[in-house]
Records
---
Amino acid sequence: MGLRTGKQYIESLRDGRHVYLEGHKVKDVTVDPRLGLTAQTVGELYDMQHDPEFRDLLTMDGPDGERMPVACMQPRTIADLARRRQAMKVWSDATCGLFGRTPDFMNVGIATLASAASVFDNSASGRALSSNVLAYYNRLCREDITMTHIQVNPAVDRSRQVFQQAKDIALKIVKETDAGFYVNGMRLVGTLAQFANDIVVMPSVVVNNDDKAGDYAFAFVTPVAADGVRIISRPSVVPQNPGHFLDHPLSLQYDEGDAVIVFENVFVPWENTFIFRDPSMCNAVYKQTFLAENYSHQTMTRALAKAEFMAGLACKMAAATKVDVFPNVQSQLAELLIHVETQRALLMQSEQLAVPTGFGTVAPSKMALQAAQLHFYERYAGMIDCVRTIGAGNLIGVPSYAELSGEIGPLVKEYMGTATLEADERIQLTRLAADASFSAFSGRQALYERYYQGDPVRKTCSYFFDYPKQELTSRIDRVLEKQRNKARQLGG
Ligand SMILES: Cc1cc2nc3c(=O)[nH]c(=O)nc-3n(C[C@H](O)[C@H](O)[C@H](O)COP(=O)(O)OP(=O)(O)OC[C@H]3O[C@@H](n4cnc5c(N)ncnc54)[C@H](O)[C@@H]3O)c2cc1C
């Protein structure tokens, strides 16, 4: 099939999937008023792969000579990492960094697993599953599939292990046959699930290395439209009666959706299975395959685009009413610009400090990328606050864009201009800033940045454990020794 067009992508979503939203089954996600514009956004990203302006940035020759997304590459050099970042930045910029799971995120994930496929042959279960990972990767390169991924078990009682829950509702293996196995239960959070073709069920976080955890320890892929798959969406953040598209441009286009996914006795054939009944592999696979750092290469490229968008927005809002002549506003804007440069520096640094993986590929520096990520969610909350502070009452002091062509249009045109902007420009900019800073959409964005890649509290602890601290502490040893020597020389 090769690279898909937006039209082919949209068509692929009309597959009889079971998506539930606000109490009803969605008939067709591509035209539903709460979902349709997001499907269109993803379709536009796929169309960019065919656009002469972006084609060579976004796509490359695949293993069989056909073009494939650059995000599917398995980077072998620092230059490859830079090329991948440039490609990912194109889609991130196209969506202002506000679309967390553009399809390149999972492209990077599957390419990474495939580059380290031999890991999947070392299973305690005795099954050699690397060929399944490789086959899926090859299919991805050929068919340009859109994926969502789910790795979190339901929150019932977080103080106990998954196999000790008062309600046994987490996704688990319930039956095994010659052809495969059946799973039943729930996983979350599937961002983009409503708009994906396949669900990649990744190893759940924190599985105990215990035989009893075996039923819950797996990784596999299944079509969204497979029998028994139910996508249960969170309520939409898309306003249902928008006065005008330009009143809520971000909410309307970039609500990528989040869902819990219930599997009712879903059959998984062996060929779609990456890990089976193997808690120790589930725990080790992220580290052994360098998945976390490759995921973060995509997410921090996106974060840079988002930081640039928010900083640009704040500067433009400040210039609109010339509050940027005041030192307090200048210092707030400078803080945003410093965030942009810090994100950029850490992202570049991650490529320069890339390490060989032992699989013939290189991985960007985990420490640089995780530092960027662990700072970003707080910085992002600050960026939203900055737009609100600079926008202040202006954010609610403009009417709907629709008023410009309504019966009081001439009045609105007369009263809504600023020193630098005509009324229409001011309303459009201000509504964009409002959507980015105090809409339901912006609230979900802040939550996303905090949690999309795991709990920051535990991730910060992991950072402490993983950091090569020995290099730093041995330096202190040398300083102490030097000072002891000096003290001896001074007769102490
Ligand atoms: C908008 C959004 C999109 C997401 N998209 C995806 C996605 O596409 N795919 C996916 O797989 N996941 C996704 N996630 C889920 C994300 O991975 C989880 O939210 C994250 O791992 C945290 O788990 P939890 O939400 O179940 O929180 P919990 O684990 O229930 O934690 C709740 C709170 O309790 C604390 N806590 C819990 N357990 C411990 C412990 N053992 N020690 C110390 N503190 C603890 C945490 O610090 C946290 O503050 C998404 C989340 C959000 C909010």
---
Amino acid sequence: MGESPVMVNAENVHKSYRMGATRVVVLKGVDLAIRQGEFVAIVGASGSGKSTLLHILGGLDRPDKGVVQFQGRDLNRMSARGLNKYRNETVGFVFQFYHLLDELSVWENVVLPAMIARSIPGWLLTRRQAWQRGSELLDELGLSERARHKPYQLSGGERQRVAIGRALMNQPQLLLADEPTGNLDSATGNGILNILEKLNRAGQTIVLVTHDERVAHRAQRIITLADGRVKSTSRVEV
Ligand SMILES: Nc1ncnc2c1ncn2[C@@H]1O[C@H](COP(=O)(O)OP(=O)(O)OP(=O)(O)O)[C@@H](O)[C@H]1O
Ligand SMILES: [Mg+2]
């Protein structure tokens, strides 16, 4: 069986943060490659730089040194507009604490990325398709009955499903999830992992960050970060 093409490639990624007079060195030369269609977990102790790395892969933060490429394109060489498009359309993000907008309904939260991706005339032309996709996503995620609720009226698992719907709205090539089950009880978290697995079976490329080994074992491959570098990479036995 041939391997699928590399989607994301990171080489020698360094990142440090300045805290007053001191510098916190977080990443000291991370190398990794994510292939199209893979479901990869990134694990490591708290503070090992998992979130920092995920933000860099998603174009939310820049490395101090090193290169991140998406399908061969260097993120650091993209225009501001290109990078915005990358973050809004190519990548979908799911976070531990959902980051939904409480003023908007469930349905509006899910559809919002499509609105952001378009100009006003563009939105007026395509909004019916966006609405259609939004309702399909709510349906798939079992949220149709909650469409008019506000996020604060939902359970944690429901909120995370809304966040997944929002992340998928623009049909991203890459789904990045940072501790998506970290705030949920194990049964609810398991439901979220089932959704991610199902998406992956349908072809979605996923990078999941977690400190929980059991969660990581739901992926196909585990990348372990330690001391600012990739310490090991292992395949998950099925
Ligand atoms: N904006 C920032 N300014 C200063 N230091 C930061 C910043 N972001 C992260 N750090 C530091 O970088 C280190 C790595 O943080 P990061 O959030 O990437 O770790 P993590 O592996 O995701 O940890 P956790 O499992 O607790 O979420 C931590 O020591 C953190 O304090
Ligand atoms: Mg983190």
